[in-house]
Amino acid sequence: MSNGRPRTVCFPFIGDFIGGSHLSALGLIRNLPKPLFAPLVVLHDTEGPVAELFRREGIDFEPAPVLNRLERAGARNGTAALNVARTLPALVRYLRGRDVAIVHTNDGRAHLMWGLAARLAGSKHLWHHRGDATSFGLRRIAPWLPNRLVAVSKFASPRPGFISAAAKCSVVHSPFDVMKAKEVEREDSRRNIIATIGCAPETRLLGYVGTLVDRKRPILFVEVLAALRRLEPSLEFAGLFLGNALNGLDDAARSRAQALGVGDRVHFMGFRYPGEPWIAGLDALLVTAVNEPLRKNARRSNAARNAGHCSRFGWQSRGRRGRRNGHARSPGGSGRIRKSLPKTVRRLRLSGAHRGNGAQPSTRPLQHRAPRARNHGGLRRPAAHGRH
Questions:
Q1: Contact between residue 181 and residue 280 where contact means Cβ atoms under 8 Å apart
Q2: Most confident of 109-113, 245-249, 264-268, 314-318
Q3: Which residues pair with 103 in a beta bridge?
C-alpha cells in the first residue's frame, strides 16, 4: 500500500481481438487483493469484443488516452516503431496522472506500447507471457523492457542465455476452474451444439478449441478430419473450430477443407464464452498444437469426460499421457496422428452406444491440482531456473 491507499495496477488491452488470455486476465483482475491493489482497466477499443466481455462480467474500464494502436500481427518495422513513439507522451501522462504503480500487459502489442510508457512514467512493468518460449518478443524485447516477467508454465519461460529474461521470470500457472466443466450437463450441451450447426443427432462432434494460429495447426485439424472420413466413411461427424482466427487462417482452413472433401463437415463457430458447455458437448477434443504453454484445454476436456487427442509436444503433453480417455502423439503431420485414429474412432462409437442407452462412457478425468505456493511467491522474487 502507498500512504495507506491500495496501489494502482493498470491493465491495458487493445480490445479488438479476444481469446483465452483475456479470460485469464479477467480472473486476475477479479482476484487482486483489494486492500493492497486497485485495478485500473484501460481499453483502446471500447466497442470491441473485450469491452463486451468486461461489460457482461461487470468489470469497469476506461478508454485509453489515445485511440492509436499497433495493428494485430503487423510487421516489426519502422512504421510500428513510429506508431509506438507517437503514443508515448499521452500514455506517460496518463500513467503519471493516475499514479499507477504497476502496468500489467497481456499481449505483444500492449507489451510494446504500454511497457515503454511504464518505464518512462516511473511505473513498474509486469510482462505476462502466455505464448511459447520461441516468440520474438520474449527473446528480443523481454530481456530489456519489463521489470519482471511472469510465464504461465516452465515450458513457456525464456531459456537462460547471455541475453535472456530468464533471471527475472517467475512461473505462475493461470488459474482455471475445471469444476465448471464437471457441472455442465453434457447431453444438454450436445443438443445445443447439434441445433446450432444443424446436423443429425447421431453426429459425432470433434472440436478444435483456441485461436486459429500457425502454432496450433488448424490446417492439420482439417487434415485429420479428412483422414477420419477416409478411415470410417460411414461415421457421421462434424469438426468445430471454437476460436477466432489470425492472419486469414480461417479462410485457409476453409479452402483446405473444400479441397479434401470435408468442407460440409467443418464449422467455424468463433470465440465462445463461456467455453465449458461447448467443450462438454464434444465427443472428442483434438489438440493439434505444438509448443503449447499450458494444458488448459486438455484438462477441461478431461473434466468434461470426452475423448481427447493431443500432440505430445509442449506443456499439454503430460495432460493426456496414460489416461483412459485420451491419446498423446508425437508432433508431426496427419500421417502420425492417423495411426492412433482407430482408437479415437472406437471411443467415438462407444460414446454413441452409451448415449443410446442413457449411460456415460467409463472415463477417468484428470484431476486439477492448484499451483504450488512457491509459484505464487514468484511474483515477489525470481524463480530458480533449472532444466527446461
A1: yes
A2: 264-268
A3: 10, 125
